[in-house]
Amino acid sequence: MYRRDFLKSVGTGAAALAMPGGLAAAAANDVPNIVFVIVDDMGYYDLGCYGSKTIQTPNIDRMAAEGMRFTDAYSGATVCAPARSTLMTGYHMGHTSVRGNSGGIPLLAEDVTLAEVLKEAGYATGGFGKWGLGEVGTAGVPEKQGFDVFFGYYHQVHAHSYYTTYLWRNSERVPLPGNEGGKRGQYSHHVIFQEALKFIRASKDRPFFCYCPWTPPHAKYEFPQDDPAWALYKDKDWPNDAKVAAAMDSMMDRQVGEIITLLKQLDLDSKTLLFFCSDNGAAKRFDGVHNSCGSMKGLKRSMQEGGIRTPMVVRWPGKIRAGAVSDLAWYFPDVMPTLAELAGATKHVPKGIDGISIVPTLLGQAAAGRKQKPHEYLFWQHGGTRAARMGKWKAIQKSGGKKPQAASLQLYDLSNDIAEANNLAANHPDVAKRMAAILQEAYTPPRPQREPPRKAGGKRHR
User: Fold this and answer.
1) Which one of 37, 151, 178, 249 counts the least CB within 10 Å of its CB?
2) Could you tell me if 73 and 362 are in contact, meaning their C-beta atoms sit under 8 angstroms apart?
């Protein structure tokens, strides 16, 4: 059930306060369709437009040439479910509801999501892929969180299999014939992708939000050998997992190209804002074959740059300047206020979210009517480690219980040390002191939540 009354009560939100009157471009006849593709565990350097020489991604590279590529974009978290929670709610890891990565922690009934904000503005809302924010039977299921339709996986452990026997559509089980008994009849991502295309076609006559949280290149490393992308890598002298991950990336690149082709066929290309990013850092570096993290330290589950920095490419023909490159430091909590502004829906954004609209960066200061407001800081937490970025400074600190351990603070100057090799905490005590205070003040303990019980044998999601 859509919480219309609650949305009407939340006011303008912090993002809207910075944009009196809203964006002029958000007139009823000029709001964009939105396609947001977020893939799973792709590294910062896995795309050609970010420097990859081994993985073929011509469509996303072209998308960057026709739009904007961000060098300093970040996920909201270093693992799957919390990253999606920051994207959907506009709150960072010190405030968002889902902060664990078991896959069974649901969004709360009172949470207001990006899909709800856009739905209130008249958008058709569809999601296709891995949800990870509420199992069937909880308040967190997508159809209770603003989506007209969601097709794919609800629990992320279920999403570990690409040859599952079923997927979900609005909490109704959809069988995948041919996958019974360990057979490999239907590759789940292919089915999910076709559903996304159907949604775009069905929604062509009204504004739509097509959310594509795709599972590849997340493990298991399973891939159909009749997919054209496999032919690009099958003869490489690489470990099989590396070949499969590369083929997954090239498959999704092809599908991004198919989305753009469909938008052009429907005469929607110039009316559609398209995002492509990863949900966190790479799960593997594949050293010796292709280093997904380059010189950055860390991987998924790390607070270092390799765990949280993500490729981010955004395209909107005629609105976003072609070939633009931005070093704005921003992250997933900023998506809600940005899209709400473009959709003319800022009045539906909850008060006090952590995100900031980046419309002035996307469209330019003249179109937005103001300069880009930077973050005072960006904040992350995973397990017992917290991190923050303030301007060029990045701090990482382990916490003991509820409070960070002062002696453990590491301080890096990202303007000349993306590898986080030189801890400058002792050299800049004033900066270290301020960063330590941020790491403490940004965190609020999460509300206790219970995951729904699993069936005996732990096979509920398989």
Assistant:
1) 178
2) no
DSSP 140-206: TSGGGTT-SEEEEESSTTGGG-TT-SEEEETTEEEE-TT-GGG-----HHHHHHHHHHHHHHHTTTS
Q: For residue 335, is pLDDT > 90? A: yes
- Rounded mean pLDDT of 5-31? 43
Q: Could you tell me the residue range of the domain that residue 392 belongs to?
A: 384-441
User: Could you tell me the CATH number of the domain that includes residue 388?
Assistant: 3.30.1120.10
In this prediction, residue 286 carries a pLDDT of 85
Which H or E run includes 209? Answer: strand 208-213
SS3 of 174-188: the string is EECCCCHHHCCCCCH
pTM, rounded to two decimals: 0.91
353, two tokens:
């979210």
**CATH classification of the domain holding 59:** 3.40.720.10
211 three-state secondary structure:
strand
Mean pLDDT over each residue of the chain, to the nearest integer: 90
For residue 278, list its beta bridge partners: 39
Q: What is the pLDDT of residues 118-137, one digit of tens each?
A: 999 999 999 999 999 999 99
Kindly state whether residues 205 and 348 are assigned to the same domain.
Answer: yes
158: β partners: none
Report pLDDT digits (tens) over 410-434: 999 999 999 999 999 999 999 999 9
The full DSSP string for 367-420 is HHTSPPPPPS-EEEEETTEEEEEETTEEEEEEEETTEE-GGG-EEEETTT-TT-
Please indicate whether residue 461 or residue 33 has the higher confidence score (pLDDT): 33
**105 within domain boundaries:** yes
Domain end residue (candidates: 376, 400, 415): 376
Question: Which pLDDT belongs to residue 290?
Answer: 83
